[in-house]
């Protein structure tokens, strides 16, 4: 049978417990899950592409018993072109509150017009991670708030290191 490849794209700046939860759940419904770290030159990131990738890889290693079918790649092109190159048949997205819906609905519609063979599959954020976003994690951390329960410990350390330096 054909290998089912899933692509989970995002900026992961940095990876949070919410992302990790989606990765764990998505890895169970595909044969191979590729986490696509978007290199968007127009977006200002706290962590550069190498740091974001390294933080994700670290989590894959820590959770290797359940995430052995998962790997990280970076991409700098149209999402659908990248998905085609990888021979991915599904794109995975996480869906939090209603606020995600509008953007995701539009993006899915546009992507389907570009290639209707690639299906976008949404995984509902778990109740525990519903409110976690990389953006708020960075903002809270910048203001010296406690983000320990939102990100893995290794990411927490890196955030503190980075924001204390700046
Ligand atoms: P963010 O939106 O936090 O900046 P990304 O652009 O890296 O994060 O998001 C990548 C994907 O992960 C998107 O589909 C986004 O909706 C999803 N996602 C982000 N945070 C969560 C979460 N807490 N629970 C479920 N999905 C999430």
Distance between the termini: 51 Å
CATH topology name, in short, is Rossmann fold
**Helix/strand/pairing category:** alpha/beta
What low-confidence regions span 5 or more consecutive residues with pLDDT below 50?
A: none
Using only C-alpha atoms, the radius of gyration works out to 16 Å
Mind explaining what this structure looks like?
This protein has 166 residues and is α/β, with parallel strands linked by helices. It has one domain: Rossmann fold. The protein has helices spanning 17-27, 49-62, 79-86, 98-114, 134-142, 153-165; strands at residues 5-10, 32-38, 70-75, 90-95, 119-124. It has a 5-stranded parallel beta sheet, with helices on both faces. Helix 1 links the parallel strand 1 and strand 2. The longest helix has 17 residues, at 98-114. It is globular. It starts with a strand and ends with a helix. The relative contact order is 0.20. The model has no long low-confidence stretch (mean pLDDT 95). Adenosine-5'-diphosphate (ADP) binds next to helix 1, strand 4 and helix 5. Adenosine-5'-diphosphate binds next to helix 1, strand 4 and helix 5.
Task: Put the structure in a nutshell.
This protein is of the alpha/beta class and 166 residues long.
How does the SSE layout of this entry go?
Layout: E1 5-10, H1 17-27, E2 32-38, H2 49-62, E3 70-75, H3 79-86, E4 90-95, H4 98-114, E5 119-124, H5 134-142, H6 153-165
Parallel strand pairs: 1-2, 1-4, 2-3, 4-5
The structure holds adenosine-5'-diphosphate.
Adenosine-5'-diphosphate binds at residues 10-12, 16, 18-19, 22, 93-94, 96, 100, 125, 129, 132-135.
């Amino acid at each position: 049978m054909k290998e089912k490849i899933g692509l989970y794209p995002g900026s992961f700046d940095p990876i949070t417990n919410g992302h990790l939860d989606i990765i764990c759940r998505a890895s169970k419904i595909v044969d191979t899950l590729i986490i696509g770290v978007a290199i968007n030159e127009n977006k200002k990131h706290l962590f550069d592409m190498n740091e974001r990738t390294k933080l994700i890889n670290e989590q894959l290693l820590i959770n290797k018993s359940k995430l052995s079918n998962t790997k990280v790649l970076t991409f700098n092109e149209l999402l659908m072109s990248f998905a085609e190159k990888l021979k991915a048949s599904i794109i995975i997205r996480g869906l939090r509150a209603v606020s995600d819906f509008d953007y995701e609905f539009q993006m899915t519609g546009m992507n389907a017009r570009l290639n209707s063979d690639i299906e976008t599959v949404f995984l509902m954020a778990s109740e525990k991670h519903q409110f976690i976003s990389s953006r708020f994690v960075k903002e809270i951390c910048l203001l010296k708030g406690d983000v320990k329960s939102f990100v893995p410990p290794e990411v927490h350390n890196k955030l503190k290191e980075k924001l204390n330096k700046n």
